Amino acid sequence: MSDVSSEGSELDERLIELETRVSYQEGTLQQLNEVVTEQDLYIQSLQVQVQSLAKKLEEMSQVIDQPTGKVGNEPPPHY
Q1: What's the confidence (pLDDT) of residue 77?
Q2: Is the pLDDT confidence value at 79 over 80?
Q3: HSE of 15, CA atoms in CB hemisphere, 13 A
Q4: How far apart are CA 41 and CA 76, in angstroms?
Q5: What's the half-sphere exposure (Cβ side, CA atoms, 13 Å) at 1?
Q6: Predicted confidence (pLDDT) at residue 4 exceeds the cutoff of 80
Q7: For every residue of the chain, which 3-state class applies, written as one string?
């Protein structure tokens, strides 16, 4: 009978160890989920900023490419 109670005790210990590991892994998974959610929000914000900068760059390049109406290498008006 001591073998049976010894085996039962070993099983209880193994079960407790497994439950502890699962509990720890659930906590870790929750932390990782929070980090991924934060990073997703940050990435979305960066995407909006990149789109805004791309639009401004396009607008600036259009202004630069427009002809100014000046001919040749005329000196500035203050000469």
Answers
A1: 78
A2: no
A3: 6
A4: 50
A5: 0
A6: no
A7: CHHHHHHHHHHHHHHHHHHHHHHHHHHHHHHHHHHHHHHHHHHHHHHHHHHHHHHHHHHHHHHHHCCCCCCCCCCCCCC
Provide mean pLDDT across the span 56-67. 88
Alpha-carbon distance values, 58 to 8, 44, 46, 65 (Å) = 74, 21, 18, 11
pTM of the model: 0.59
Domain residue ranges of the chain, discontinuous segments joined by +: 1-50
User: Cα separation of 57 and 39, whole Å?
Assistant: 26
Residue 7 pLDDT level (bands cut at 50, 70, 90):
confident
